[in-house]
Amino acid sequence: MGFLADQAGISGDTPEYTQIDIGVLIIGAGAAGARTAIELSQQGVEDLLVIGKRSHGDAHTTWARGGVNGALGTHDPEDDWTIHAADTLNEGHFINDSDKVEAVAKQMPDRLRELDEWGMEFSRTEDGNIDQRYFGAQSFRRTAFAGDHTGESMLNTLVERAQDLNVPYRENVMITKLLTDANQIYGAVGFDMDTGDFLLFNTGAIVLAAGGYSAIYNRHSSRDDENNGDGPALAYDAGASLMDMEFVQFHPTGMAVDETDSEWSQWSGRLVTEAVRGEGGRLYNANGERFMERYSPKQMELDARDVVARAIAKEIEEGRGTENGGVYLDISHKEEEFIQERLPRMYERFASLGVNLAKEPVEVAPTSHYGMGGVVVDNSGETEIDGLYAIGETMAGVHGANRLGGNSLAETLAFGTITGAHLAENEPTPGIVPSEIRQSEAKSHFNELNTLADQSGQHSVMDVYEEIQEAMWEHGGLLREGESIERGLSKLSAIEEKFGQMDIGKITSRTFEFAVDVAFMLTSAKAVLISAQERTESRGAHHRLDYTDTAPKWQQNICIQQENGGMQVDTSSVSPPSKSVQEALDAGYELDYHQLE
Predict the structure, then answer these.
(1) pTM to 2 decimal places
(2) Helices in 165-265 by DSSP H: which ranges?
(3) Helix axis angle, 579-587 relative to 81-91, nearest 10°?
(4) What is the pLDDT of residues 77-121, one digit of tens each?
């Protein structure tokens, strides 16, 4: 939100605000934030606070349905953490941070057993073990699940555990700026979304667990008020670096619907979980051809997400798409009872729309789903700014060029535990926000927000919001090209000029919230396009029509830093995996889809 002062101006006396002193402030109440808080509490840290933009337990985690990875070996005892790490590196096209990958893979069997002990209602085998299913590009059945509502069940379990530990929580608070001198974190400022009161959090440490940036696209699997790039934008504005922002995962199977039908249109782009394909769902084009036989005869519908998404896009582009611009996903060859048991939420969703998933196919097409990039952090989750941490989808490093399905929930649990334990080692206490930062950063920002509220203008906030999404889908979407990316950057610059001319309601209004989101989205969107322009190759989820090959010289990460008011591009090298993981890579484990048949 750094450009607000230029756009909106600062006027009047500083508004009143409430100061809250807290040792550790956790921004984000999904799985990553909850698991961090649990770890802190279990290790005796009491001076912490979790804040969220929504009511308690209402976070994007609940929309992660298919499962969570961990090498338990329920069905495939030869699986282990090294193979999980190898699959993750393969899927990430070897620009992942290998230390972070291995940290997640090593932890996950224990994290899954821990959830089980805390009462998570996992689906189970006949002998009572945690069941595991196939997921795309995984060598073995490694994805533990609770029907097709894994994220919801997992977050409910974490929230209940946090409540048992009396973890303090405050809901309906939006953070709009972090207070730093670019070297150390001092606090954060924001507002109470119910009352409009301004808040200053004086902290010893901040954990950003605020989600990703997939909703900067107009077709996405999130709700419109989440994954707008809050976390990366807040960190970047504070002086932290971003990395891998060009890598946006377009999930193959978002709902493709009749946009003129009000009942269906609200579901456009929403995820049809990979679990449907993991349980045997098949993809067909409008000609009735099972087209993945042409693109990936061995792994079929369970090839990597980027491979399946581009295959679907090609089928549509070449005229073999369905009436609503998608392809068909069909699991009707399975028994209805099986579908109701293994995919209950999907079955219920489509039943509510008059479609029986057990008897007819549904239309799907790629949708923006996950940002592999985010904030640069070390192995404890800390940024280059002392006391500022980023975890979950806000951080970069684990997923590389493409995320392995089932690894997003795994990352939240693993790094929530790692970061919580690291913070607990020397329990942060509230410091004192230096007077110059209080004046130049906090008070001036409150004036910016105050000026933004009730701003009159010629542009609707939602029109500007949607312009960003449309520009990103057109110029930074599934298929990219240099000249188009340049046009996208020009469009973002023009959209930014409209910020000070938007018509915005009072601070408790939805238009004010979305105006703040517009600022976050512009930062994240520019970082995506600048990084995409720099990477002159195709790798994983980043596909350039003008550079279709993968270039060995680009086996490195693209980083974005602030410099002279603009985004400066730099690169960093990737580290090699450990000997044991390299051995797993050399062994060449690979999923064979036909094991399902």
Answers:
(1) 0.93
(2) 230-238, 262-265
(3) 70
(4) 999 999 999 999 999 999 999 999 999 999 999 999 999 999 999
For the four alpha carbons of 394, 398, 404 and 408, in that order, the dihedral sign comes to negative
Helix (H, G, I), strand (E, B) or coil at 309: helix
- The domain limits of the chain are 249-369
Nearest to 34 by CA among 215, 168, 190: 168
Across-strand partners of 512? none
The full DSSP string for 489-527 is: HHHHHHHHHTGGGEE---TTSHHHHHHHHHHHHHHHHHH
Return the CATH fold of 249-369.
Flavocytochrome C3; Chain A, domain 1 (3.90.700)
High-pLDDT (> 70) share of the chain, %: 95
Residue 528 has pLDDT above 70, yes or no: yes
- Report the alpha-carbon distance of residue 116 to residue 120 in Å, rounded: 5
Confidence at 346, pLDDT banded by 50, 70, 90: very high
Cα–Cα distance measured from residue 35 to residue 160, given in angstroms and rounded to the nearest whole number: 11
Look up residue 215 and give its DSSP letter: G
Check: CB of residue 142 under 8 Å from CB of residue 406: yes
Q: Is residue 3 exposed (0-12), middle (13-18) or buried (19+ Cβ within 10 Å)?
A: middle
Instruction: Give me the pLDDT at residue 8, please.
Output: 42
Q: What are the Cα distances from residue 384, in Å, to 40, 390, 433? A: 22, 11, 19
Burial level of 436, CB count in 10 A (0-12/13-18/19+)?
Answer: exposed
Q: Which contacts of 334-337 are long-range, i.e. CB under 8 A and separated by 24 or more positions?
A: 334/279, 334/280, 334/358
Strand 374-375's sheet: what is its strand order? 374-375, 242-243, 556-563, 566-573
327-330 and 282-284 as β-strands: parallel, antiparallel, unpaired? antiparallel
In three-state secondary structure terms, 19 is strand
- The residues assigned a catalytic role are 251, 277
From CA 122, how far away is CA 268, in angstroms rounded?
29
The backbone torsions φ and ψ at residue 75, rounded to the nearest 5 degrees and listed phi first, read -100, -30
User: In the 3-class helix/strand/coil scheme, how is 136-167 assigned residue by residue?
Assistant: CCCCCCCEECCCCCHHHHHHHHHHHHHHHCCC
pLDDT above 60: residue 11: no
What number of other Cβ atoms are within 10 A of residue 356's Cβ? Answer: 12
Amino acid at 92: G
- Report the distance separating Cα 306 and Cα 311, nearest Å: 9
